Fold this protein.
Amino acid sequence: MTIPSDAQLREILVDMVTARTQSARLWNLQRQGQVGTVAPIDGHEATIVAAAHALDTEHDWVIPQYREPLALRRYGPEILERFMLYSLGHPAGGHIPDPIRVLPNQISLGTQIPHAVGIAWGMVLRSEPGVALVFFGDGSSSEGDFYEAGNLAGVLNAPVVMVCVNNQWAISTPVHLQTAAESFADKAAGFGIPGVKVDGNDAAAVYDAVDEARKRALAGKGPTLIEAVIYRLGAHTTADDPTRYVPPEDLEAAQRDDPVLRLTSQLRKLGLWDDAAQQETEVEALELLDRAVEDARSAPLAVDALLDHCFSVDTQRLALQRSQLLEARSTETR
Amino acid sequence: MTIPSDAQLREILVDMVTARTQSARLWNLQRQGQVGTVAPIDGHEATIVAAAHALDTEHDWVIPQYREPLALRRYGPEILERFMLYSLGHPAGGHIPDPIRVLPNQISLGTQIPHAVGIAWGMVLRSEPGVALVFFGDGSSSEGDFYEAGNLAGVLNAPVVMVCVNNQWAISTPVHLQTAAESFADKAAGFGIPGVKVDGNDAAAVYDAVDEARKRALAGKGPTLIEAVIYRLGAHTTADDPTRYVPPEDLEAAQRDDPVLRLTSQLRKLGLWDDAAQQETEVEALELLDRAVEDARSAPLAVDALLDHCFSVDTQRLALQRSQLLEARSTETR
Amino acid sequence: MADPFESDGVTELTMLQAINETLHAEMARDDRVVVLGEDVARNGGVFRATEGLYEKFGEHRVVDTPISEAVIAGATVGLAIAGLVPVAEIQFLGFSYQAMHQLAGQVARLRYRTQGRYEPSITIRAPFGGGVRTPELHSDSLEAQFANVAGLKVVMPATASDAKGLLASSIRDPDPVLFLEPLRGYRGIRGDVPDNDHLVPLGVARTAREGDDIVIITWSYQVELACRAADSLRSEGLSVRVLDLRSIVPLDIGAITEAVSHCGRAVVVQESCETGGFASEVIATINDGCFWSLEAPVARVSGYDVPYPVGMLEDLYVPDEARIIAAVRRTLESG
Amino acid sequence: MADPFESDGVTELTMLQAINETLHAEMARDDRVVVLGEDVARNGGVFRATEGLYEKFGEHRVVDTPISEAVIAGATVGLAIAGLVPVAEIQFLGFSYQAMHQLAGQVARLRYRTQGRYEPSITIRAPFGGGVRTPELHSDSLEAQFANVAGLKVVMPATASDAKGLLASSIRDPDPVLFLEPLRGYRGIRGDVPDNDHLVPLGVARTAREGDDIVIITWSYQVELACRAADSLRSEGLSVRVLDLRSIVPLDIGAITEAVSHCGRAVVVQESCETGGFASEVIATINDGCFWSLEAPVARVSGYDVPYPVGMLEDLYVPDEARIIAAVRRTLESG
Ligand SMILES: Cc1ncc(C[n+]2csc(CCOP(=O)(O)OP(=O)(O)O)c2C)c(N)n1
Ligand SMILES: Cc1ncc(C[n+]2csc(CCOP(=O)(O)OP(=O)(O)O)c2C)c(N)n1
Ligand SMILES: [Mg+2]
Ligand SMILES: [Mg+2]
């Protein structure tokens, strides 16, 4: 059992508080019409942040679903910068710069899991040390891609860490309608790999599970499926009204187990956290976010950016379309 | 434990011998260029026949992959008749007539499993007693459809019996490259349903497993995944050369466990089978097959059959195409 | 044949309301109709298209499925075989890709491969289309890919009234129908919808604007834009017809031929990228049926040949009134 | 630039042999190339296209996968991100439907959605096409559906030499390529293939027969039939050009326009069903680029609007020389 050090736990809490603070601000920005759809992070902080902290950012890849970016700060400030471009609908939001080993958000549920297996497999082929850690929700686990990827990872013995973030909901669909399996970790048996169920509100437990899975993978022992059990404390997204379907008593129970509150009170007891730390972290989080939004707003955008990066070189048809687009846009501004 | 009666075992053996005999004849017909690709049944007889005998043909559905038809005789002579039309490439081969509850062959691996779940679900909605039994290979179990269907069946508690026919090979791919799971039955845990591994060369064991799964399903206790472990004794199909990849010693070992020989010697010992029975069964099997091929050869085919049954009524475009086709064909024969 | 107890009244509804009402009516009318999909039951659908069905018809006929598009589509095959009339929702058309092997490989072929033994009375509803700043794969216009799948009908209403009439026809149709609902139309399109049972046959195009100089041929939300373009050009004295295809399979070849023969000039508008979009099929159909009437090449207004883009670039990608008007002018000036 | 140690010799090969040799050469040339798919390693592929690769390059670079088309395609995305050059086989194009969400939704978009951070140097090979009595979904010509997927190149060789030159270019191309191999061509097409490194650029059409009266535009195996038709019509004194598109994305618009402008008449031939087939796009392209040169409507020869049929009906479905010749005559007589 590898327990994060006090210093690590403190860093983890900083990232967790940062993520929650920024998520709340983003929600408001969306309500003001300043950014696109937002998927709040509330409840996911311990799982995502602790997992990221168990990784070697230089070698290990993170393949997210869509709720994670604010909690992946450990991979560098570019994650936030690009995520704000993404939230504003700027194309550069998808370009997380080299050498950061984090893929952009995935909207097509489950499709990122095969990508993770391919990356892990590729690292083995290139004799690179490293693992591919992929996040996906309880809902996404119902996609064929999850199973096909888990099965292939098992056969290839690929260094993948599959983290099923079980927040009990997929939009309005509760886990018991998602699967009759007793737990998502049980699905590992079908791939011939270990399945581990962990309290995802316990940062240390998540850290330990990921650390162990990572070490197994690096030792050539193959993939692990980790189920992190949490609760989605917020709405699915800004487009969702969870009061239509989330039983209030369940939500209240979950709120009592809030991962941020839990780690905060733990570290307060250890004397590692206090009101000042909380305030400082929140202030910095907001500053960073606001600056990133500002920067994203003023990011340049070529008049024909729409047509860039489809192919390495324009086809004849794209070249024609580019000249039509440029012509139309020059008329516009004339 | 439900053991088939002696009389049932004898019927099962008749169907098994019939299937093997007809399969061999079909192989030869293919070699003579008289029918299309053939997937031999050798090694599959006990599993398919015994499963079919555990069903109530009036109420229970069989959803096959492609290797089963010759062993589904219990569902009526029409199965063979239609299968011969199918083997000759006649469109009517896909029309297994009402009220026979057997779907035509499925070529797109795994896609039949969702169909089975839909049928089972539909029977519940219509308060019909009955189960949907679906066959699929060890190879097909790697398709997302298998997992998505198994998971949905679990959630719906649908009366499905999922029979994974593990013949150790998917064309040239051996089971250990198909999955790292210890057994295909282990995949049931991921659906929250029982998984049963059975010796598929033992007709009585298969009968019992299917019978039990069927009773569970009818009692509203939901689906079961049965893995029937057998060995593909023949080639994948007439287009395949298994000597390129099947280790001869494995094949020899499997031949010693041939399901037809096993049941034959068992019934011989019981005095339920003898050379005369064997000969009579083989002769009848060949007569039936040859007659079915004859009938299929002389089955009528409209000049514009190509365009029938795409839609309930021709669209404008199809009507135009039909007149073009008819015109071209009348020129042809002029 | 008029039922004296029924009104011939109309009610103004959004397209979304029309769809929701039709689902209620069809489920009430035929108890074989079952609705399945992600979040369709307890939540009434992420856009509320299925609102109230679960409360009214219960958990057996209105079913929240796991997030498994392939088995949603695949189960409809089995449900149809068992004698039910499934109406499945794919939450966004882009995720029909996850079900392509069932939709194109199985649903579309059930009748053909069983030579009529089974009736695929299957309707697959899916929203799609641009202009509302959705994430990836929510907006893509994939209709041309499905039009190339023989055996599948592809229905794309442009008005609230047609949404009702075409959806009712689709559900009652014995063939499989992909019923595509424009996201921008859900709340953005409203109009009078007949209160009574209202059926619009599949495969009969609608003249949305009369006109003689040129015809704009299009479908789904782009009909709205084409009509606006026609109206604004009319004020300049140009007589622009708008033909709403309503369904691209079956295609009303007769109506296309008639309109183009009459006007001599045509513009085809689609949201899909240009290459391989359904506009090409319309142009090929014009070439087949009324080449000799053409006084100018047919213009095509499309998305560009890139994946559907992110929010900031959407308005450049999706055809708008200005691009339609420019194409009309260009075509009128040509030749 | 000629390498004095290399020969300029040619060897007569079948298309299958040309493909197999090219895979050997590309794997030898670039150790980032890995081959994956069902039965590609120990069995050398169900058609032997990958024969010998496993023995030569070992189990790490030539991998038998489980029967999971989605993850075969999906893993190529990860492999490319990790810096490899995957060449995946989908055993038959019809089963690319199982992978559509990865091919159309992910592989095709990797460069665009990451704005160039990742190079999708991915090749997906798949056999397809009629005439060899295969079971369901083995023969279907689905190219038009992929052509409507922006970001994917679709390459369809018609000769053994092009199979080599286009496959080598596809593997080396930094964009994702769907490389489609006609089943009838595997052993049915043979010809001289350069022994040396041989690259045919993607997007440059080939004039397979010179001619002035009319041009037949087609791709893949149908080029063979078009050439036979042209040859037999030549003996009657008709000068029929055949344009082999080689790839439908990128499309050689210039070559189409040039050929049609020169000949004034055109026939487009495809194996796909008619509605929404790529022939429509060719016709729309002609309409765009050389409408005024047309002396008659462009004829289309296609499969019918039904699913690809069973063996007994195949020869009626797939275009043959007779149907091509009839369309040429009809077009020459028209106008
Ligand atoms: C393939 C696919 N199907 C459906 C959707 C629509 N959708 C978006 S989020 C979501 C729920 C996802 O639930 P889960 O995986 O548990 O993640 P969570 O939102 O709970 O973090 C659905 C159904 C989608 N984006 N992709
Ligand atoms: C979706 C799909 N992928 C690939 C194939 C090609 N194929 C036909 S049979 C086969 C092997 C099937 O193995 P298994 O399911 O174990 O059945 P078996 O032949 O052993 O009875 C393959 C890969 C197919 N028919 N469908
Ligand atoms: Mg969830
Ligand atoms: Mg097998």
